[in-house]
Design goal:
mainly alpha; 67% helix
C-alpha cells in the first residue's frame, strides 16, 4: 500500500469521526429545541427555532464531512453525491443565515457585549443595541445573498445549464 493510499484512508477515517461528532452535537441541540431533551427555559434567550437552526448547522455540516469521508476524493464526480452535497450545504447556509437575520431583525431585546484588548489589558462593556443589530443584520443579509447565489450557481452547474460542458 502506498503512502498516498494510507494518507487518504487516515484522512477519510478522521472525516468520518469528525462528521459523527458534529452530527451528534447538532442532533443534541435539535433535540433540545424540540423539547425532547429537557432544558431550563430561562437559559434560552432566543426562540426554539433559532436553537434548532444552530443545531441543524452543526448536524448538516457534520453530515457533509461524514459523507465526504465515505465518498473519498473522487466522490464529487458522482451525480448523486453532488446533489446530496448541494442539499446539505444549502441547508447549512440557510440555517447559518437565519440565526444572524433573527439577531439583527427579530423581535425583542438583545444584549451585546464589547471587548477591547490592547496587549494584555482587556476592557469589557455593554454593547450598543443598534450597532449590534446592524452588524448582525447586515451580516445576515450578506450571508442570505450568498446563499441565494450559491443555490442558483450550483444548481445551474449540477444541471449543466451553464453551457461549459465540464460534466
Amino acid at each position: 500500500m502506498s503512502n498516498r493510499q494510507i494518507s487518504t484512508q487516515s484522512q477519510g477515517g478522521m472525516a468520518l469521526l469528525m462528521g459523527l461528532i458534529f452530527m451528534a452535537v447538532g442532533g443534541l441541540i435539535i433535540l433540545m429545541a424540540l423539547e425532547i431533551i429537557p432544558m431550563d427555559p430561562s437559559s434560552l434567550h432566543a426562540p426554539r427555532w433559532v436553537l434548532g437552526a444552530a443545531g441543524a448547522l452543526f448536524f448538516l455540516s457534520g453530515a457533509l464531512v461524514f459523507l465526504q469521508g465515505i465518498a473519498g476524493p473522487d466522490g464529487e464526480h458522482d451525480a448523486l453525491m453532488r446533489w446530496v452535497q448541494y442539499v446539505l450545504v444549502l441547508g447549512a447556509m440557510v440555517a447559518f443565515s437565519s440565526v444572524f437575520l433573527w439577531v439583527g431583525f427579530g423581535p425583542g431585546e438583545r444584549e451585546f457585549q464589547t471587548t477591547t484588548s490592547v496587549g494584555p489589558l482587556s476592557v469589557t462593556g455593554q454593547g450598543d443595541d443598534l450597532l449590534g443589530r446592524c452588524l448582525f443584520g447586515g451580516f445576515g443579509v450578506l450571508t442570505a445573498l450568498g446563499t441565494a447565489y450559491y443555490a442558483f450557481q450550483q444548481l445551474t452547474k449540477i444541471l449543466n445549464l451553464s453551457g461549459d460542458g465540464d460534466e
